[in-house]
Amino acid sequence: MRLTNVLFKKVKSKRIMVLLESVVSGHQYNAFRDRLAEKLEIIRFDPYIQQESLYRERKRIRSA
């Protein structure tokens, strides 16, 4: 093992995958956002209720 391998930090990606959940029906889908950005809140079509509804970020899934 070389000294250079020990000194390097693990590189984090700039984007992360998050789980978005509908406030109305609980429908979920995955989206990407920047790591340093605020939590996502977007309006999108919800197939369960056949209307647009608000989706909020529920949890982080993984780095992208």
Automatic annotation (TrEMBL):
GO CC term, one of those recorded: mitochondrion
UniProt keyword list: Mitochondrion, Ribonucleoprotein, Ribosomal protein, Transit peptide
The keyword Ribonucleoprotein appears for this protein: yes
GO biological process, one term: translation
Domain of life, source organism: Eukaryota
SUPFAM superfamilies: Zn-binding ribosomal proteins
Subcellular location: Mitochondrion
Record's subunit section: Component of the mitochondrial ribosome large subunit (39S) which comprises a 16S rRNA and about 50 distinct proteins.
Family: Belongs to the bacterial ribosomal protein bL33 family.
Protein's name in the database: Large ribosomal subunit protein bL33m
